[in-house]
Amino acid sequence: MESLSRLIIVEGKQDRYKLKRVLEQEEDILCTFGTIGVYALDELIENYDLLDREVYIFTDEDEPGRKLRKQLNQELSHAENLFTETQYRQVEDTPEHVVASILQAANFKVKVKYLKGS
Question: Which residues of the chain have pLDDT under 70?
Answer without folding.
Answer: 1-4, 117-118
